[in-house]
Write a structure and sequence with these properties.
The chain is an alpha/beta fold. It contains eight helices and ten strands.
């Protein structure tokens, strides 16, 4: 009986430690309130970002917003997105994974046109599930064509260990304050998607988009003039 109690106690202790670890993982999410207000976010997540010099929003006193794009692979739409950004004089930040490094011409064009290339990790792994060595490896194995100070954790998942290791490597975490569901294979509706972004926009917004969707270029062609008409300008992360 005593042995059973010891085993049960040890199991419960291990379970408690696991649950505590899980509770310290941030899965980034937003609660939008409209009226060009900054969304509510995880209080703990925001505290961690502040502690390790990360960001999810810019200066909320200025009507300046930021375009960021996540690229795990090339689906054939990035050149058109670059054309659109060039037409409007917008400088964006592209967060790329290891698979994208083969797209040398597009990466070169991003650099030549003044865009930033950020670190989205080499293998797009769930960083909080890795130990410190694993996190460091997934960040440093990504051989970007230019130095960067920014990284974006895959799926918006991070914990204190993730941000601490990244900061030791000179990297700041960049999350977001405006996003839509645009990573699926089904083309998004350009008009509905632009309207959703407009309904969530706010001063200092860091917008996240994916260029793996066929509807993204058409959405941007609608969105950018409408943001301009609302008095927004377009900045670059710094």
């Amino acid at each position: 009986m005593r042995n059973l109690m010891l085993v049960t106690t040890a199991w419960l202790s291990a379970l408690a430690m696991l649950l505590v670890g899980q509770s310290n993982i941030v899965s980034w999410g937003l609660s939008h309130h409209g009226n060009e207000t900054t969304p509510s976010v995880s209080e703990y997540g925001a505290e961690l970002l502040a502690k390790y010099d990360g960001l999810y929003v810019g200066d909320t006193s200025q009507r300046e917003v930021y375009f960021t794009f996540d690229l795990g692979y090339e689906a054939g739409y990035t050149a058109e997105v670059l054309d659109i950004l060039k037409e409007h004089g917008i400088k964006a930040t592209f967060f790329v994974c290891g698979n994208y490094l083969r797209e040398t011409e597009l990466l070169q064009r991003m650099q030549e046109e003044g865009h930033q290339i950020g670190n989205h990790t080499d293998k797009h792994r769930d960083l909080p599930k890795l130990d410190e060595a694993g996190i460091r490896k997934d960040l440093t194995d990504l051989a970007l064509p230019q130095a960067t100070q920014f990284f974006r954790p895959p799926q918006g998942r991070f914990d204190e260990k993730t941000l601490r290791v990244a900061k030791e490597l000179g990297l700041r975490a960049v999350l977001w304050s405006v996003a839509i569901v645009d990573w699926g294979k089904e083309p998004i509706d350009a008009r509905a998607s632009a309207d959703k972004v407009i309904s969530r926009i706010h001063p200092g917004a860091i917008m996240l988009f994916h260029i793996t969707n066929a509807g993204t270029p058409a959405m941007l062609r609608l969105l950018i003039p409408e943001l301009t008409a609302k008095g927004y300008t377009f900045g670059q992360l710094a």
